[in-house]
Design a protein that fits this description.
Length: 235
């Protein structure tokens, strides 16, 4: 991890303007928050923080992808999210000042803007819109986590895998208009996303490939028939 010398103010301000939570800030508040924030760089696969470590800050992703993970009761690690540039993370421990509720790792080389708890708390005490955006983010992520845990507890592997691919394809489609959607997800990663084994994932993917729902080519998972996946997701 490298702490970067402060960049010119406009870089921080532009990043905060692009983040949903801070988009509603007036320019003076955004400049004040940017002046107190600082950048950190992480190499690919470098831990950012561990579950259970002290949490006194949240981060906005300026560049790269950050993976959020947590352990399951079985001992396996589940992938909760892969967050791209423009997203924020670490908000739970930042708000309550307690331990981190999950682990974060740089999936690629990353540059993060670090926002300390004292500065964010001071901001949301005086800005109702920023507080509301933060609550909306927390609720959305809580809902998604609850959905994932419910799926793992009650759905069979094919349904869990189909739902995961549908969500990943929808996220990819938002970032690119290219069709069909191509996903760079290894089978081991998919297994960790749905709380299963690589062997089970491979079995499902091979069957769906035979039926023309997906294709596996040159390291890509290509979604050919989203409606066909929907049918498996709802079984």
């Amino acid at each position: 991890m490298t702490i970067v010398e402060p960049k010119p103010g406009p870089d921080k301000i532009r990043l905060l303007r692009d983040c949903l939570i801070f988009r509603s800030l007036d320019e003076a508040a955004r400049q004040e928050l940017a002046a107190r924030a600082y950048f950190k760089r992480y190499a690919a696969k470098e831990p950012i923080f561990q579950m259970g470590s002290p949490g006194q800050s949240m981060m906005a992703i300026a560049a790269g992808v950050v993976r959020i993970t947590a352990p399951m009761e079985s001992g396996r690690e589940i992938i909760l999210a892969d967050l791209p540039a423009g997203e924020v993370f670490g908000e739970v421990a930042m708000l309550d000042g307690k331990e981190r509720s999950a682990a974060a790792t740089a999936l690629t080389n990353c540059e993060l803007l670090v926002l300390e708890r004292r500065d964010v708390v001071a901001l949301i005490r005086h800005d109702a819109d920023a507080a509301l955006r933060l609550l909306e983010l927390l609720c959305a992520r809580l809902r998604r986590s609850e959905e994932r845990m419910t799926e793992i507890a009650f759905l069979e592997v094919p349904a869990r895998l189909a739902r995961t691919l549908i969500r990943a394809a929808a996220d990819a489609a938002e970032r690119s208009r290219v069709q069909p959607v191509k996903l760079s997800l290894a089978q081991g990663e998919l297994a960790r996303m749905i709380g299963s084994s690589r062997e089970n994932v491979n079995r499902c993917l091979k069957e769906w490939q035979r039926h023309g729902l997906i294709d596996l080519k040159d390291g890509w998972l290509i979604v050919l028939d989203p409606q066909g996946l929907e049918a498996h997701a709802n079984r």
